[in-house]
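INFO batch 0412 | record 1 of 1 | parsing
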Amino acid sequence: MNGRFPLPLLLLLLALAACQVKPKEPTTTVSTVYLPLAQARAAPTPSPTPQPTPSPAHMPTAEPGCTQPGFVKQASLPSQWAGTLAYRIYYPPCYGEDGRSYPTLYLLPGNIHTDSIWDDLGIDETADTLILSGSISPLLIVMADGGWLAQNSSGGPGSYESAILNELIPHVEATTCAWGTPQGRAIGGLSRGGYWALEIAFRYPTNFAGVGGHSAALLDTYAWPAVNPRYTGLSQDLGNLRIYLDIGRSDYVIAPLQELHEEMETQQVAHTWVLNEGSHEEAYWASHLADYLQWYDSLWDGETAVPPCTQ
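INFO prediction complete | emitting tokens
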């Protein structure tokens, strides 16, 4: 043998090699939860939507036999910083019938939106469906306006932060059956509202159980490091604050939010990162409302010492 293949055999081998199909790159959305090394566990199976870990105890669900839908009320309050601060509150099905208080989610709007945006997206209908099916516990959802103050301030005292922390939250907790302690409180927002939710929660992490930045637009070039969530998310001691960051792959504000996620990963800051298909638009947020509410609900899963309503 001279070490060469016969020509017919060589041609056959080349033909078989050409028939091999290269595997396609995966296109599925991946959700990843990062934990500090001290809490490291086996990594969960990636999935498009993070699922809360089951707990042996759960928040109370809707009253047995409750079929009435929730409802939304519009209101406003005088504000030292905003002039007038408009807001809406979603009250869950059979609100107030069992004498308990409710975990409360504060949702902030984008720059071009008002307090109507979360209502328009369908947050109330989505909450009704999940509550009445027993998928989440009843909660209050407070939808704040942003207005000129949210658009023209970057953070710190006298900014939109002050209107939310010092006026809206105390007012809601004084006039409704809101669970008025940090473990019963969460804050989130979309676009510019996502910036504000992260700004507020990162500066005051002991005031909330969790924070959600939904397509958070971390584009404020005037925000100094002491208030900018791009920095406070890494420099502050966030304690037990739980963090959810999500965005569409085609979103034009993805770069700074993805950088924050990657830097948090490097520094072992616990958070949930969800990269979905989609862009910076209402259709994207509307399609993930159930995901958001299920994640916020997981903040209170296992809480059994729910205080009674004092209103």
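INFO post-check: The radius of gyration is 23 Å.
INFO record closed
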